[in-house]
């Protein structure tokens, strides 16, 4: 290719300069008259719809209706897009089409207490079963008492007691006969056996204690007084009703042998042969002890036989009562066959346990059992100590009764009573306990956890329906996340003690039955989290076959405007705030376009619009209070709320603008400069976005290194910015390829920028600065530039356009608008303009200008003032056909000078050094392959 400079011998077409936009093109204006309502009060009854989210709506409805497993939903989108509210609404709508879920209860497993039994019942029947079970336990003792009071049953009971008395009388007769043969006399006196000689009165007790007040008679230790003949032990000996000590003179011996005489006791029997030798007295004492022990055994056997017979008799009375009560408990309940069998087994186990412990539920038996256990101690201990022991025994037996009663209850952990449709559960605190339930420690620290300590979590409450979780709440709890993975994989849940990992647990090895699960999970997260899950945990990701993607923006239409207005109406009603007139709604809709940075699309972040609505209604309310007249929210209230929002958040913006206005940060607002231009940047603090100009300068000189990005050299630029600079370098190489290799060293820098640079929106400005430096053509400083660049010189759209323009405008306004100020933006960004009214008014007045360019040549012509095009044959590079001729000629002339300078410098070096340099430039030879 020729390296000769361009000639201007041929005619040149005029350059299409940058387009100047009119004021009406700078923002979308919505006519309130076209909204077809006067105020939002007319729209209160309209439902909250999927505003512009048809794709997400179809996906959600499909996923919620799918019954097969692993069709859970992952909802992704920006926070504030209404994703949670809309999915909850969709879940509730689908739940109405499904039947109510089953109640879930746990009952005690009397056979294996560590394995509680799970029972499922149709909705509402769990509460009925619990109530019936409690009533059965309350009524059965009363029914048994009534049965006992019947004449024929009392007669049988009395007969059993009479048989026991007869056996006791026979045993006492044998003891009495032996005593007479031994020269002794035994009689019963005030509940005690008294032994004396046949020739004297009472002398000694059976405890071997001599009463000096008597004339030597020995009193035998008391056998436990019959008191009530109903004395019974814990094993089930039953009392005879309405008996007393007076009605039953039979002797009852103590349970132990401590009250009987033992060898070595000082047992004196008054009236015995005084001539008897010590050996004879010892033999008599020994024989007496044997006879008393034999008597005690005979009486005890009689009591055991009586109690066993009574126990069988009471069981024969209670069994039909239990069977009838059990049938009544289950009457009308409609569990599945599996759970009906579980209930039958549970009631059978409960019946066997209660019949085995008849003494714990026959009326009055606890007090009588305690008396029977402790009557024997009355003569050994003091009266007070004996009463305390008796009270302790009664308390012990009462505790056993309460325990048995508690074990016979129903622990209803999921109750859907009164519900007619499937459950919808939203869990905002998805801890291990809240999600999957737990086994709580008992209130009494001395006992272990049992079935009554089982608690359900959200997963069980949502079984048969829908559960919504937010992914961000789960990611901080690894245990909950792993448990959720396991539940979704197995579709089963075993409730465990969540405290077990923190130390010894009172639940021991208790393992409730596994519960099958059938619920639909709706997991809400961000787009980044969704794709991260796909990559890091594909097994979990495949459980979510339905992707519900909420768009960040959506195309505006009459339908979306009305739906958005209906949302405003519902919020005004919900918060009891004044409604909006049509002008306020129109202004709010315009702000929705501003949030989307698009005249054709609305923002999907409805929470920001809702916040602005509430702040506007508050201003209208305050105005109404001051004037004493209620009024609707108007457009002026929305404008005031926007201004207040900006004032609350723009402290940094004001500080940076002040630094520029005061000259601390150097920006030129007028005149022309070579190699210098004002670029536009956007700063996002999270709660506020604003624009700020940046001075971009370029310097060029002869060399071989090409374009150097100073920010990149000091690691203060991001990858996107670096990419933009490399694209710029590629465009320059193509533009001046006929002069290749280029002998150029160039540096580009953002002046006074110390916090880093990212993005490619300054690529056009950097190119203009470089071409200005090469050509020596000055650039207008009153026009700021933004726009990205491709390798063909086309200007590409950028983000943050409105904030960038408004930031530059505000600074120019502080300097004083003189009609020369403006901005140059990509033509493809025109639809994204939603500028503030102050900018639009200045443009309308001719004080400020907004230009658009499709190609860098249009911008270069505007900034340099040269609008002539080269002839197509005058320049070999296609990229040069849309650039100003004067700029190209000057730039090429400079590049030729750089080449000559490099050639002269190269020739001035010694020949050996030049050869070495050429050798270094040769490509390295590839080593031979092995």
TrEMBL record:
Active-site residues, Swiss-Prot/TrEMBL: 761, 804
Keyword field: Hydrolase, Protease, Serine protease
Catalyzed reactions: Hydrolysis of proteins in presence of ATP
Assigned EC number: 3.4.21.53
Designated name of the protein: endopeptidase La
Record field: compositional bias (Low complexity): 215-235
Pfam families in the record: AAA_32 (PF13654), Lon_C (PF05362), LonB_AAA-LID (PF20436), LonC_helical (PF20437)
Family of this protein: Belongs to the peptidase S16 family.
Enzyme class: hydrolase
Domain Lon proteolytic: 671-866
Organism: Comamonas piscis
PANTHER family, A to Z: ATP DEPENDENT LON PROTEASE FAMILY MEMBER (PTHR10046)
